[in-house]
Amino acid sequence: MGDHYFAPRPGLPARPGSVDLVLPDLHLRLATDRGMFSPDRVDAGTRVLLDTVPPPPPTGNLLDLGSGYGPIALTLAARSPQASVWGVDVNERALEVARQNASTAGLDNVRFIRPGEADPGLRYDALWSNPPIRIGKPALHELLLTWLPRLSPGATAHLVVQKHLGSDSLHRWLDARGYPTERVASRSAYRVLAVTRPSPDPAEGPR
């Protein structure tokens, strides 16, 4: 389990590297390491997400769930410099590298934390995520049901999921749980889902 990117302490020996995140509005060189998600290149799903989502809210609290070494959170921080950005991950090696990347990029409006360090009373005005599908469906559902209710009423989460890893079934499940979901982009077998947190909270529905 320690070799998985979703392990708190990866067992693989460190092997530092770097990748380039090149977007129309942003170019970052990001440090990476073994034992975290997609250390050899910015994941294609992450690129699809960052290329297709609408601009984030200019202020408020913005969340990257499963932040890894930080490409999504750092893009949020760069695009919304007046917002407070939170990158959440269980992988301590990834969090350390993400903090290094934020410092290198001069982005002081982003913090990278473990899930248990997040204020449970804080409400987020947007959530962007390339969620850890490979933790398994029950664990993924539990993760989403923990964090989606922390969105501000009416706020939207944008999730990118590969079609063959269950994007369509996740779409149906979110709808059934009371979170209106729309596919807003599709590219290279990836789907970007926009998930809205209604008000009041969704009623419990079928798993």
Q: Top keywords for this entry?
A:
207 residues; seven-stranded mixed sheet; Rossmann fold; alpha/beta
Describe the structure.
The chain is an alpha/beta fold and 207 residues long. It has one domain (17-154, 163-196): Rossmann fold, CATH 3.40.50.150. It has 5 helices and 9 strands; from the N terminus they run E-E-H-E-H-E-H-E-E-H-E-H-E-E. The chain has helices spanning 44-52, 71-79, 92-105, 137-147, 167-176; strands at 17-23, 26-32, 61-65, 84-88, 110-113, 124-129, 151-162, 181-187, 190-196. The strands form 2 sheets. It has a 7-stranded mixed beta sheet, sandwiched between helices. The longest helix is centred in the middle third of the chain and has 14 residues, at 92-105.
Taken in chain order, the helices and strands follow as EEHEHEHEEHEHEE
Instruction: Report the average pLDDT across residues.
Output: 92
| CATH topology grouping | Rossmann fold
Under the CATH scheme, the architecture is 3-Layer(aba) Sandwich
Q: How would you concisely characterize the structure shown here?
A:
By secondary structure, this protein is an alpha/beta fold. The chain contains 5 helices and 9 strands, in the order ββαβαβαββαβαββ.
SSE blueprint:
Blueprint: E1 17-23, E2 26-32, H1 44-52, E3 61-65, H2 71-79, E4 84-88, H3 92-105, E5 110-113, E6 124-129, H4 137-147, E7 151-162, H5 167-176, E8 181-187, E9 190-196
Parallel strand pairs: 3-4, 3-6, 4-5, 6-7
Antiparallel strand pairs: 1-2, 7-9, 8-9
